[in-house]
Write a structure and sequence with these properties.
homodimer; 328 residues; alpha/beta; 6-stranded parallel beta sheet; elongated; DNA-binding
DNA sequence: TTGTAAGCGTTATCAT
DNA sequence: ATGATAACGCTTACAA
């Protein structure tokens, strides 16, 4: 196998022209059922495979679908993203190549690389997680180059084709629940980019934002640990906590338990996202479900709709629910 | 932006030939520092980007690095794979496109799609998780097409460039530990493709394989649940369990606790893989660490070595350790 | 229905 | 160091 067989020599071997071979593969051009069958069989038998790059270059389209997401955790799996990917994957037609590319806010090269993928024609459609500067840059690039795209989350760039989730409302549910179950001293452990959660939490609890104890965290178990220690040592009165995501909640619960705090008796905790582990944790974690997979599914469908020409300019908001389990 | 600018019109605008422009980008050809700088600046300013497909076609190389893995969980994140991906990603040079593609053993189309990616030249190097028929097919394809590749796991195809992990030894450690801590009635909850684990477990415990109660499971929390119920109802004497992966262990512990079994007092449980959640679970899960990230790192390095021409034909075995935490 | 020939946008070869 | 020009392997009018 010194060199790949090209269409010409293959066509010759079969006894047809290159054009006919091309037609046999592309569903388009008119060709007799019989010749097509003959060519396909011969290709199978002789091991002919059209070159991906040549095919794309010749047809001046093609290219894969990319999922761009901000790399928040550099050193840990991103469970949030994973759930969304599952949803997207289950929707997209499997004959399309699907790539997932992180863009790091702090790494110029990564974001440049993501942009380049669109600019050089390798990516012909995109799903983009919004909320960062990098994302904004990619969205406006997608608009400029006129490729089909859908944004997950809010977009300031008056993007069409948006699948959004309502963090603030979800947090309101959490706040309300804590108030109704007679908790008195709320705390909020923040992650990245989620001011709306705090706002909703305060509203639901019926207080102003400034009355909520906020502990700044970030993505990762360890921030939950730190928050638990902070509360144990300096904010004993705290009796309920909303965590910006389930991973933080797990870290919090774990450390709190080690310190002798009882969950949910002493402190009720609610997480965010409802990743797979949440309901399998001990205690099972109460959480605001963003229905991440549905989010992925919607995004995928919205993209397919654009491919199909039905370029309906719509924005969708996936509902979110409070799921009460054992940690509250 | 009706159409992308091509190299010819760009070259004209800058006042050089297309060939010179090409040289300015490719690090190769000899070109004066000055012209290169001028061209690069102009490209930046005019927004010229070479077409990915044309570039690859012209240079008769290119293509991305693919990570092929068997899709075991169709409906859940695969934590095992995620950890490996993190390792690979941290190693690979970021200017190479890295795609991750599942091939499903039960879905002809998915595996055909994976093969096609290699055959049509889109993928020019691969990292393949071994252990399934699909994997074997991909490995032999990689060999036939002579692309650089590395296999993670054991390969029957006398593959070179293998990064292996020693499941059997890890399980031996687990068996031995249970014996030394005076457990008497071992059970093994299997996942996929891991007969060696059972063998090692029996050896470590000092009994024959047939003396180990085996409960057939699979990937996913629910198999852990089912196993716990099975043991609770039909195998009361069981006092220690090795689970084929951490997810199963979590499911097992969760359900066992619900049934009133105390972990580790009544039953000691050891998981496999040491995924991120293992040490953050309550109780923290004792597990056989496969050092998944190191595995990914090694695989990435081995591939880079092949690119660099140092095609050292070597096989590596990443050590594995038993990590004792709270579930034993 | 099939063949001929002109692109597609690069890189590589060979001059200069 | 730079410019012409021929590949690269396919698709797609345009003819037949």
């Amino acid at each position: 196998m010194s060199r790949r067989m090209d269409i010409k020599t293959f066509a010759e071997a079969v006894g047809v022209s290159a054009a006919t071979v091309s037609r046999a593969f592309g569903g388009a051009g008119r060709i007799s059922v019989e010749t097509r069958k003959r060519i396909l069989a011969a290709a199978e038998q002789m091991g002919y495979h059209a070159s991906f790059h040549a095919r794309n270059l010749g047809s001046r389209r093609g290219g894969s679908i990319a999922f761009f997401y901000p790399e928040l955790y550099t050193d840990e799996p991103d469970y949030f993203i994973n759930e969304i990917v599952i949803g997207i994957n289950s929707t997209l037609k499997h004959d399309r190549l699907f790539t997932v590319t992180p863009f790091d806010e702090d790494d110029e090269r990564l974001i440049a690389n993501a942009r380049e993928q669109i600019l050089d024609g390798r990516v012909s459609a995109a799903i983009i997680i919004s909320g960062t500067v990098g994302a904004a840059s990619l969205i406006s690039l997608a608009q400029k180059t006129r490729i089909p795209y859908v944004v997950i989350g809010k977009s300031t760039l008056n993007a069409t084709n948006t699948v959004d989730y309502d963090n603030e409302y979800g947090a309101t549910l959490a706040g309300r629940y804590f108030r109704e179950t007679n908790r008195k001293h709320p705390a909020y452990i923040s992650g990245h980019l989620d001011r709306p959660k705090k706002r909703g939490f305060a509203a639901g609890f019926g207080v102003s934002e400034s009355e909520i104890l906020e502990i700044r965290g970030g993505a990762g178990f360890k921030y939950g640990y730190q928050a638990a220690e902070m509360i144990y040592h300096h904010h004993k009165e705290t009796d309920c906590v909303l965590c910006a995501n389930d991973i933080i909640a797990i870290g919090f619960i774990k450390r709190a338990a080690e310190l002798g705090l009882k969950i949910p008796e002493n402190i009720g905790v609610i997480g965010f996202d409802d990743i797979a582990i949440a309901k399998n944790y001990m205690p099972a974690i109460s959480t605001v479900s963003l229905h991440l997979r549905d989010l992925g599914v919607s995004a995928g469908e919205m993209l397919e709709a654009q491919f199909a020409g039905r370029n309906i300019i719509q924005n969708e908001v996936v509902r979110c629910d409070l799921i009460i389990r054992e940690s509250t």
